[in-house]
Amino acid sequence: MLVHRKSHIFQKPQKSWHQLTKILPTSAKQIDSLRCSPKYTLTPLIGPLKTPSARQNFDNFHKRIDNSRCFQKRVLMPVKILMPALSPTMKEGTLAKWLVSEGEKIEAGQVIAEIETDKATMEFEAVDEGVLGKILIHAKTAGVKVNEPIAILLDDGEGERELEEFLSITDKPTITDNKAETPNEDKIKSNPSSLPCEKQQDRIAATPLARKIASINSIDLSLIGSGSGPNGRIVKNDLLKLLDSAPQVEMPGHYTETSIPISPMRRVIAQRLVESKQNVPHFYLSVTCYLQHLLSAKKKFYDCLETKVTVNDFVIKACAFALDKNPAMNVSWEGEFIRQNQTIDISVAVAIPDGLITPIIFSADKLSLSSISDKVRELVDKAKMGRLQPREFQGGSFTVSNLGMYGIDEFTAIINPPQAAILAVGAARKVPTVSGDAIVVSDVVTLTLSCDHRVIDGALAARFMQSLKKAIEDPVIML
Description:
This is Acetyltransferase component of pyruvate dehydrogenase complex. InterPro entries: 2-oxoA_DH_lipoyl-BS, 2-oxoacid_DH_actylTfrase, Biotin_lipoyl, CAT-like_dom_sf, E2/Pdx1, E3-bd_dom_sf, LAT1, PSBD. By secondary structure, the chain is of the alpha+beta class. Helix content is 31%, strand content 22%. Strands 11, 14, 17, 18, 19, 20 and 21 form a 7-stranded mixed beta sheet that branches. It has a 4-stranded antiparallel beta sheet with strand order 3-10-8-5, with no helix packed on it. The protein has a 4-stranded antiparallel beta sheet with strand order 7-6-4-9, with no helix packed on it. It is extended. It starts with 7 loop residues before the first strand and ends in a 6-residue tail after the last helix.
């Protein structure tokens, strides 16, 4: 916002317009010096610019002002702080906590709030410095739309007056043409039934107690007609008689229910899984793997290296091995094309109180088993505390979902678009098997692969499962 033309000018006190034109600066640098000098103040220009030379001098001065970088700085004005979009799928979120208070000075890059997105709780940093003038959305408010104003940022020198003026301007309702929706007053007067229900109820003669009983029981007083009170006034007894005469509905049994608000994360999970099931043609392959050698290697890791690894860590490593052997499985459906992923980034499904999140083990094929184990533990801890960063859970080319710790023998999982496959891991269990002519007890696990048939054919998925089974049953080949 620049100085209004022909209405204001930087003027030195006790200097006439004629004197001022003689000392006009001739460069942007000089204008900057003039602007910042305490000797000059912004005052109304007294008297019209009558002579052509005066008007020409004023215009030249104003052109130099327009080109000055000093006048291109932001004019003091409050700024709205908007709800940020902290993930590609985020449409709304929960303002979990404010970390600054009204009136507190904040710096650019300072964390001012915590936002619960559809994936995790994330920190929100200020992009500009100033003073937090007013909080518009308070902490623990859910369903805040992206780009909705959540606070007002004041600049240095601004106060309550500027804040009130700003709010009065921004809060003014938009004027729209409502003539088509406005009822004709003459028609309303001639036809009382066209009035809203509340207006009709107000015109019915009834005692305040009768109105309250009618409101609680959703009774339309206009249907009662004349009451038993003076001049046909509806009284309490009229309502009680009406309620007593109503047929009683016998309830099948006493029960209670509670409405649970839908969190942003749960809403997005629901939308994505419905989209996946409706649009992605799933097919499934299952295989049972023997765990004798894997469990032996797991014990040696702990005994020799004092490294605690889990069966799931072996499965993640085996998936990376199988994807490397079958790169056509490492793809994503993008609608108009198929993306061939160049790195093997495996997402690991983690259950958290509000839903499910899938942190990523990047370049899993290049990591050792112990590195995968350490990374999984780190990501699981961060996920449960809601401290994952977007780069740690957005993307991935293949997902592993394990419910074995809950004693689930086998299950099928829903693909996480745009990925093309997900592996469901069941519990390690003992089963009787035939070894030669003898029946022995063996440790086994059932793995079920869900595939997107648009990009993965049955034969390709079968070859992947063969490679996966070999790596699980003989882990030496992948270590």
